[in-house]
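Narrative of accomplishments. A recurring question from our advisory board has been how the design workflow behaves on a single, concrete structure rather than in aggregate. To address it, we present the structure tokens for one chain from the evaluation set, followed by the sequence designed for it. No filtering or post-editing was applied between the two.
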């Protein structure tokens, strides 16, 4: 059961590239879930610039990976791993001004009910959609979390 109708800040990890509170190179997202939607604001940093004063496309993908993963994780109340992420770049993403991200769980994968889908969009400060994403996520069973984190730390 989720708290889809309640607003709450999603817990953040210290070293995570996406939401880390102690990662100077990271994105520093502070996502919030409200009414089943995960929202976050991101202010582009010069270190994340691509060519010609636009945000690097890989950073856009990382932003989407973070919020879509959290949309599914907060829906199923479990850690999840990204299986697939597809980004559609619609417009150049400017470096000036805040960007908004919105993501939601899109339900079970029709090809594998153990996996879940998510959808997201990236908007500029005036509401223009700059990019969209769709992802596929695998919930990690609680009894496998220790092994998952141990293997991840060893690599």
């Amino acid at each position: 059961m989720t708290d889809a109708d309640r607003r709450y800040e999603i817990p953040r990890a210290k070293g995570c590239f996406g939401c880390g509170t102690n990662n100077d190179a990271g994105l520093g997202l502070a996502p919030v879930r409200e009414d089943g939607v995960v929202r976050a604001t991101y202010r582009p940093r010069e270190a994340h610039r691509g060519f010609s004063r636009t945000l690097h496309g890989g950073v856009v993908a990382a932003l989407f990976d973070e919020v879509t993963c959290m949309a599914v994780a907060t829906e199923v109340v479990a850690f999840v791993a990204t299986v697939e992420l597809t980004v559609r770049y619609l417009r150049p993403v400017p470096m000036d001004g805040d960007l908004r991200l919105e993501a939601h769980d899109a339900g079970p994968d029709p090809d594998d009910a153990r996996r879940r889908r998510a959808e997201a969009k990236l908007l500029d400060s005036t509401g223009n959609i700059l990019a969209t994403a769709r992802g596929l996520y695998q919930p990690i069973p609680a009894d496998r979390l220790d092994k998952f984190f141990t293997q991840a730390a060893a690599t």
